[in-house]
Amino acid sequence: MKIYSNIAVSESGYLFNPMNGDSFSTNPVATDIVQLLKEGKNEEEIKKFLFNKYEVEKSTLDRDLDEFMQELKDYYLLDNNG
Asked: pLDDT tens, 16-75?
């Protein structure tokens, strides 16, 4: 899965969808996830990165990442085919 290529992403975590004008601000963890998705990383690679960077329990990481990925899908920011 990848963020759609037309989604603009700033280094500070601001996302903009030019197709519908929606914009979103993300926290540092979500910014890392979005950047990793833009780089083409898969879910396991993202989990490994986050687990190594942040002090978090695996169960919390799994749950929170699943929820965030669903939000990206719900807002039509995530390309399931990429």
From this structure: 999 899 999 999 999 999 999 989 999 999 999 999 999 999 999 999 999 999 999 998
Q: H helices within the chain, ranges in order?
A: 28-38, 43-53, 58-74
Residue partners of 8: CB distance under 8 A and separation at least 6: 15, 16, 18
Statement: the pTM of the whole predicted model exceeds 0.85: yes
Paired with 15 in beta bridges are 9, 24
Q: Return the structure tokens found at 55.
A: 């002090």
- Cβ 65 vs Cβ 48: under 8 Å: no
